[in-house]
Amino acid sequence: MARRRDPATGPVRVLVVGDVHGEFELLAEWSAAYRRSHGPLDAILAVGDVEPNRDEVDAAGVYGPAKYRKLGDFPLVLDGLLDLGAPLYFIGGNHEPWPALDEAGPGWWSDGAYFLGRSGVTDVVGLRVAYLSGIYSARITDTAKARRESIRDRTYYTGDEVARVERAAGRTGQVDILLTHDWPSDITEPIRDRSVGRPELRRLCQRIRPRLHLCGHMHHRHRALVGSTEVVCLGHIKSGADAFVVVERDPDGNLALV
């Protein structure tokens, strides 16, 4: 997808951001701050709830209360008025312009912004990235051949999509990064007597054994281990540094978190 940096020039650097919710000016500011201090980025990964609304029609397709439905800053990116500093690769969360995303399918959503799709494994600047968009719903996820007919239904992943990630990972070998919107289960104590995270995402992580599992959704930063996989949950972009992590891959293929 994106150009690869020559390994001789140094490590590949990828900025990973939590829930953007249309705040692309903030994303551009944080990207610029990193690049001033540490040098160029090769890509930006986003873990869902990006809200890359190109116009009011896209914004109207975002599920949620009307007071939270906004156009956001993405038109500035679309018009070339806002530089993110590197190509953006994103999955979808539960607040996205899903009718438009589903119609377009995986691919370049705009110049410099790439929608990875609903589920699968792909290459991003030399990293093997497994991904699953959306969140859980018993009515959709646990129903065979479920049909997503309403805007709300589009926010959920299906059981087939979870299985597709595992099958694709089995064909491609070592997965560097697993991107999901929701958390895997059993990595933190219940909050307000409710369990946090999804068992099927924990099983997926255990089966494909990515080096890193990156997620968002809860607007809270948290780190944990699932087996040998380091899980990093990222905050809302307005939480500042808690919304970001940088992944570096050296010429030998080793990954490190910055």
From TrEMBL:
InterPro entries assigned to the protein according to its UniProt record, in alphabetical order: Calcineurin-like_PHP, Metallo-depent_PP-like
Full protein name: Metallophosphoesterase
Domain of life of the native organism: Bacteria
Domain Calcineurin-like phosphoesterase: 13-220
